[in-house]
Amino acid sequence: MRHKAASLPNVSLEQGSVTSLIEEKGTVKGIQYKTKDGQEFMAYAPLTIVCDGGFSNLRRSLSNPKVDVPSCFVGLILENCELPHANHGHVIIADPSPILFYPISSTEIRCLVDVPGQKVPSVSNGEMAHYLKTMVAPQIPPQLYTAFITAVNKGNIRTMTNRSMPAAPQPTPGALLLGDAFNMRHPLTGGGMTVALSDIVLLRDLLRPLHNLHDASALCRYLESFYTLRKPVASTINTLAGALYKVFSASADKAREEMREACFDYLNLGGAFSEGPISLLSGLNPHPISLVLHFFAVAIYGVGRLLLPFPSPTRIWTGARLISGASGIIFPIIRAEGVRQMFFPATVPAYYRAPPVD
Questions:
Q1: Strand partners, 28
Q2: H or E element at residue 241
Q3: Based on the domain organization, do 72 and 191 belong to the same domain?
Q4: Pair 208, 159 in one domain
Q5: Sheet strands (E) in the chain
Q6: Are residues 102 and 212 part of one domain?
Q7: Domain containing 77 — which CATH number?
Q8: What is the 8-class DSSP label of residue 134?
Q9: Which of 21, 42, 93, 238 has the highest CB neighbour count under 10 A?
Q10: Residue 318: which domain range?
Q11: Nearest partner of 190 among 158, 238, 227, 230, judged by Cα
């Protein structure tokens, strides 16, 4: 993508590490950056798009971030082995949390082991290798076991924190936040690039009718609509990622385990019961209400499984806790995303903002 952008006649590519935004009287005028050889430069522009990723050092100037770190991914590359279902991604429902496998070449499979919490066993002193061999390896498919152990023994183990952060922008003249710099979700569903590319298309369409970007105040007021218009796609994928991670993680709660089993059986029904959730995952159905309906359909399906053929007081109690637990999973995520922006974006004033007149 970088090469493609650099090939365009109206693009000038400069590479360096941005150290700060240049601000004058509350308006962002450009950036200060440092090149590989240590030289510092300043670049000025009427609109600065900040997209410096999940570890952004600029987001605090343009938003009110509340970053949560639910877990860490431990990454390995498995070589010369076959997945149970070729050319498909695999989610292994393990204890304490999911394990991902997906092909990245004809001979390589990436494995991502989710480890709950903000700290992982140390790689340097061998604790991580011991954890992977004793806790993780027994839970993976047999056809991947040997390749997994070989990858662990090679020692090429990488770790990365998984971050979740609802979008909380503070509209600032001269600047716009984009990507993981201002909105993240658990990467279990791989929705990050879907959200990012959707945001880029939306921003492109908003900027297309503009011929003058130098009226910073008018441009900022107009681009507030970006933060509202992106909500249906972004919040649907964000909410689904957070909810599925909690459902797929192991729990001592019987109701939570029933919810997890119901989720798989619901998908196995096929037809609309699988097409609906998959279209939500892929961003093809950016309707939050569909997400809520499917999520509670899974919960109700789980309750039905419990009560048939003969309900008992214990099963009724477990079913009630299943519904309560489902609500406790999804509603806090929706609240963090913003109920009004998520379900009723057209009621937000910025939704109807027209382009500033040249």
A1: 23
A2: helix 231-248
A3: no
A4: no
A5: 17-24, 27-34, 40-44, 48-50, 68-79, 90-92, 99-103, 108-116, 158-164, 175-177
A6: no
A7: 3.30.70
A8: I
A9: 238
A10: 240-342
A11: 238
Domain end, chosen from 186, 208, 230, is at 230
pLDDT in tens, the chain (358 residues): 889 989 999 899 888 999 999 999 999 999 999 998 999 999 999 999 999 999 998 999 899 999 999 999 999 999 999 999 998 999 999 999 999 999 999 999 999 999 999 888 999 999 999 999 999 999 999 999 999 999 999 989 999 999 999 999 999 999 999 999 999 999 999 999 999 999 999 999 999 999 889 999 999 999 999 999 999 999 999 999 999 999 999 888 889 899 999 998 999 999 999 999 999 988 899 899 999 999 999 999 999 999 988 889 999 999 999 999 999 999 999 999 999 999 999 899 888 888 887 6
Asked whether residue 171 is assigned to any structural domain, the reply reads yes
Long-range contacts (CB closer than 8 Å, 24 or more residues apart) made by 273-281: 273/297, 277/240, 280/236, 280/237, 280/240, 281/189, 281/191, 281/237, 281/240
Residues 38 and 178 in one domain: yes
CA-CA distance, 226 to 338, in Å (whole number)?
Answer: 15
CB neighbour burial string for 262-287, b if at least 16 within 10 angstroms, e if fewer: bbeebeeeeeebeebbebbbebebbe
Q: Is residue 358 part of a domain?
A: no
- Please give the tally of structural domains in the chain: 3
Tokens matching residue 335: 């609240």
Q: Report if residue 298 sits inside a domain.
A: yes
| Same domain? 51 vs 4 | yes
pTM reported for the whole predicted model:
0.89
| Alpha carbon distances (Å) from 277 to 11, 43, 189, 283 | 39, 44, 12, 10
**Residues 173, 39 share a domain:** yes
Longest Cα separation, the chain: 75
